Backbone:
């Protein structure tokens, strides 16, 4: 059908909103409560447009296009209404843009500037009404909330967690938690997806920037940094580069200029995870198929701390299914403070380990009391991709101008299998590349090692691999069809875990990542996020895999040396002490105090 936007004929299909048709035709209509990942709310009325024949202004995000419709996006009454709505929002908002962590990309501030808001007819009176809520991962500032509801919809629709919701009545209404006890007393997974979709500074990561500056400035400290796979596919966006720009070497150069003593790669411990987790999977298969033990399969991955907290709250009776492997971040910490410290003659008490992560749940994970296998806090500080960009800008560094440099050794050596950890399906693909070869002695029979059935943005993916021609010690697997599933976002995790709980699932191995798209869509990644942005980042990650000389974790020479020199063999006693962990059964909510 045809509709007319500002007099121009535009093609539309049944079921499309005015906003969607306008977007496809290059007409920008401003929005606030709308987000491309979420269902429609239609509560901010920033997107209003004039429609011929309609008495009142229509909200473009909810109004459906119909044949012959004539729409005007910039009439005086449209501009006046939008301006008034922005003024009302600003009037109920505690504006302190100078010190607000979102002042470089606040959607409300941008709208105020675009619409030339010079005065507030309804200024907010008095002082702050709510206190900051500070958790290890997330800080909530209720005074900067504009009640758009994006966080609520994110938590409900994408994550299925329902940790936040509107509470109170009339003028007292606000976004709160169960009995307003705070996120730490709910089943909030600390995934930070609500941060990525909040248009203002009402939600942001709890910052570790200052303590990291302090450590870097302390001559008595030896500061090592690790960078997660997904950071290199997104950091460029903070410096104006296109989504999907690969900036690995430039990021390494930037970190070196910030003064870190060693620049290491979490991909090294991602490869290590594959060896430890793959070995654990084969042991679980044998115990199930040969010894007929129960409760060991399907095994689920354990690298996503948001997923771990989710299963602890929502499926505590299934915790025996979770791999005991720590996440790559938490494998890195104890190895840096034991193996590397011993090798280099560094006193681990003076070593500070910093992680650069696409994730805010990793901040919470680093604070878990069991994460001190080295005898010290294994990971001292976790910075998000956004915080790293902030530090680089503070130091006057522009990523675009950085040369391309290499990681330091030994923890800078990694494989293509490790980089794909950053995308949904990547851990499964990396594990299958290794497990199949260990069992059969041959490469997995997928063209160019690309296990395409586990790739892509479908929320739940399934695949089956038949194992034939096995080595003598794996005779119990001859002819076995290994069934795997991959889920990203916690609502997708629910679909899979409900099947496991009911006994309907026939899977052997399940990968679950808490965030949409996997870590590349993590709560610490550059804002905004959208399906297109996440696809671009995934492309960058798979290109990086293609570009690497070694693409299977078990071929990483530095990992082989680590076992020879220190860990002895996969799943050894020492490996268990340093690299494996246990989980906690949690309730959904704490008791009301
Ligand atoms: S949320 Fe936006 S408008 Fe409000 S203080 Fe922060 S930058 Fe300013
Ligand atoms: S916290 Fe942010 S996302 Fe949630 S309602 Fe407030 S402004 Fe919107
Ligand atoms: S961090 Fe995740 S689980 Fe917690 S409130 Fe935000 S979206 Fe919900
Ligand atoms: S963006 Fe349309 S009503 Fe909020």
Residues:
């Amino acid at each position: 059908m045809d509709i007319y936007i500002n007099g121009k004929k535009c093609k539309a299909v049944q079921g499309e909103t005015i906003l969607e048709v306008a977007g496809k035709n290059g007409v920008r209509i401003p929005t606030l409560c709308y987000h491309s990942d979420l269902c429609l709310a239609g509560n901010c009325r920033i997107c209003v447009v004039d429609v011929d024949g309609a008495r009142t202004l229509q909200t473009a995000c909810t109004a459906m296009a119909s044949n012959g419709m004539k729409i005007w996006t910039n009439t005086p009454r449209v501009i006046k209404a939008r301006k008034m709505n922005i003024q009302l929002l600003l009037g109920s908002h505690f504006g302190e843009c100078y010190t607000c962590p979102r002042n470089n990309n606040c959607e409300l501030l941008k709208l105020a500037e675009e619409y030339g808001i010079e005065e507030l007819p309804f200024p907010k009176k008095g002082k702050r009404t709510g206190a900051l809520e500070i958790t290890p991962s997330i800080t909530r500032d209720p005074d900067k909330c504009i009640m758009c509801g994006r966080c609520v919809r994110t938590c409900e629709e994408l994550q299925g967690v329902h940790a936040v919701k509107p509470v109170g009545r009339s003028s007292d209404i606000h976004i709160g938690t169960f009995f307003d006890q705070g996120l730490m007393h709910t089943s909030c997974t600390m995934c930070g997806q609500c941060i990525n979709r909040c248009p203002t500074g009402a939600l942001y990561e709890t910052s570790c920037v200052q303590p990291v500056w302090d450590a870097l400035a302390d001559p008595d400290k030896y500061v090592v940094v690790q960078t997660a796979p997904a950071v290199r596919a997104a950091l460029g966006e903070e410096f104006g580069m296109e989504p999907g720009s690969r900036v690995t070497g430039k990021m390494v150069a930037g970190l070196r200029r910030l003064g870190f003593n060693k620049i290491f790669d979490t991909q090294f411990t991602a490869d290590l995870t594959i060896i430890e987790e793959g070995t654990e999977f084969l042991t679980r298969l044998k115990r199930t198929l040969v010894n007929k033990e129960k409760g060991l399969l399907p095994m689920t991955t354990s690298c996503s701390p948001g997923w771990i907290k989710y299963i602890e709250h929502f499926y505590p009776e299934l915790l025996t299914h979770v791999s005991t492997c720590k996440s790559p971040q938490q494998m890195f910490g104890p190895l840096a403070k034991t193996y590397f410290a011993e090798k280099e003659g560094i006193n681990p008490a003076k070593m500070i380990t910093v992680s650069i992560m696409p994730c805010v749940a990793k901040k919470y994970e680093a604070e878990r009391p069991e994460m001190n296998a080295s005898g010290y806090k294994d990971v001292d500080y976790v910075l998000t991709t956004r915080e790293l960009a902030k530090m680089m800008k503070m130091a006057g560094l522009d990523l675009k101008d950085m040369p391309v440099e290499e990681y330091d050794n030994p923890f800078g050596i990694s494989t293509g299998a490790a980089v794909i950890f950053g995308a949904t399906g990547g851990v499964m693909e990396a594990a299958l590349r290794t497990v199949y070869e260990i069992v059969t002695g041959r490469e997995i029979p997928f063209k160019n090692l690309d296990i395409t059935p586990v790739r892509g943005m479908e929320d739940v993916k399934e695949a089956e691999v038949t194992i034939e021609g096995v080595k003598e010690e794996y005779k119990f697997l001859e002819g076995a069809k290994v069934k795997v599933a991959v889920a990203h976002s916690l609502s997708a995790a629910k679909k899979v875990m409900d099947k496991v709980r009911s006994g309907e699932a026939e899977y052997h191995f399940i990968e679950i990542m808490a965030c949409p798209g996997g870590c590349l869509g993590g709560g610490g990644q550059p804002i905004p996020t959208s399906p297109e942005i996440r696809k671009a980042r995934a492309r960058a990650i798979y290109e990086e895999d293609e570009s690497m000389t070694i693409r299977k974790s078990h071929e990483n020479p530095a990992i082989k040396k680590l076992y020879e020199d220190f860990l002895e063999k996969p799943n050894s006693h020492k490996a268990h002490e340093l690299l494996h962990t246990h989980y906690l059964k949690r309730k959904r909510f704490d008791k009301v105090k």
Remarks:
- Residues 93, 95-97, 100, 102-103, 106, 108-109, 144, 200-201 surround iron/sulfur cluster (ligand 1) (CB under 6 Å).
- DSSP finds 18 helices and 18 strands in the chain.
- Residues 317 and 585 are 8 Å apart (CA to CA).
- The longest helix spans residues 266-289.
